[in-house]
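Reviewers of the previous submission asked for a worked example of the structure-prediction workflow described in the proposal, so we include one complete record here. The input consisted solely of the amino acid sequence. No template or homolog information was supplied to the procedure at any stage.
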Amino acid sequence: MTQDAPVARRRELWLLAATFLVAVAGLIYELVAATLSSYLLGDSVRQFSLVIGLFLSSMGLGAWLSRYVDEALSGFVWAQIGLGIVGGFMAPVLFFSYAFLGHVGLLLYSLLGLVGILAGMEIPLIARVLEGEGAHRFRFENVLTADYLGALIASVAFPIIVVPFLGLMSASLVFGCLNLGVAGLTLWLFRDRILRGVWLVWAVSMLASLGALANSERLVNVVDANLYEDDIILNEATPYQQITVTRFRDRVRLFLDRSIQFDTLDEHRYHEALVHPALSLAPRKAKVLILGGGDGMAAREALRHRSVETVTLVDLDPRVTELFRDHPKLSPLNDHALQDPRVEIINMDAWQFVDGGTDVYDVIIADLPDPRSINLSKLYTRAFYTLITQRLSAQGIFVTQAGSPLFARDAFWSVVATLEAANAPGAVDHGLWTLPYHVHVPSFGDWGFVLAAGEALRQNTVQFPRGLKFLTVSTWQASQVFGRDVSRTDVDINTLQSHALVGYYNAGWDHWFR
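From that input alone, the workflow returned the following structure tokens.
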């Protein structure tokens, strides 16, 4: 063994370790871009598909371009510096572009394509360097093993560690620093073979990235201050979504993934319309199930009915229910409903809860997010509504929010048609009777709901609790009248195979607001 063998061995081991590290960083950039695109552009399935396709094709282009890099070691270092800057600053640049310019699509795909090209060059360049260091010991499968293992670690860590503890902006910068760290250690181990001028570029890039990382919270605050009209009193990321709460004087608003969920100035209109018609018409209302509604507002309204004995609230994100149960500024908004002993909170997926349980309920209320994506659309499918009927008591009533019959007209009536097509044992013609209605909520616009039951309900006996701010018998009757521009349309039902609702929803909102 020659005198240089230990040095060569250290370099070889480092390059394999570097393969692992850059694989982690590369997949994190891809996941950051995919998450950002779904946050900012909507339709998560479409955006994830586009991001993955563009990233992989860009990596293929990068691998092909690597053949034109004469000096593999220098090429690898420059690729790491480029990734540290482009990948590291990708999230900050996209957030600022969205906040101040309102446009992000072209920039996002351009940055992602550049990151993919640089990431695609890594493995071929590392393989060439390793082969040059010791061709008799080089095995390409070792490089691929380190690369795939890094991808596995990144995919597991992203939802469990990266997003909850770092957030997207800091995560982007942290892994940019990781790429720059790989470049720095490679420069030091191969200092006899790389020009000193590279050190200067690396040092400036690292200082800029560390400076941005140290000020990432301020950067987030600048972006959010431009996105939201009011003061931000809470802003945090969970494994499921971005939670933001704003306040102006006594006015509080909740945003999930930057989409408004309620405004205390008018949330009573939405929640009274969602809850009280179903509970007032139900022959029995002892057991109530609320799907979604982690803010506790629907539970607050349900508890106004003295006949309600238990309310089971199923919401996916435990942080939302925790905040609106325990936070001193948020819990009063729902009159401390989530602390009421009659309320049971279960944090799990609505589909899994409905499919996996056996309890039946007198009233089921679906206060679920809009069907912007296939993942959410499944909670508005015929299959899901059929599961719902199995959890309803003999005379039970189901009600769901169904979006805007004005802004997404076809989507609203697709929900109605899908409920009518649900397989409901014991119902006439095995379908559900439906009653669509809509009210004006200033924060949302014209907003629709759909009641469903096994048989037609008699409405001449409806009585609402005292103390409501909006809903009366006359407003309830008026809510069932639809003008010509929001009247029923001929649409497809929403199934797990077609997900027609996603197309209707996005087409409607794009027509009005894009």
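The chain has three domains: 5-225, 228-256, 266-513. We consider this example representative of the routine output the project will generate in years two and three.
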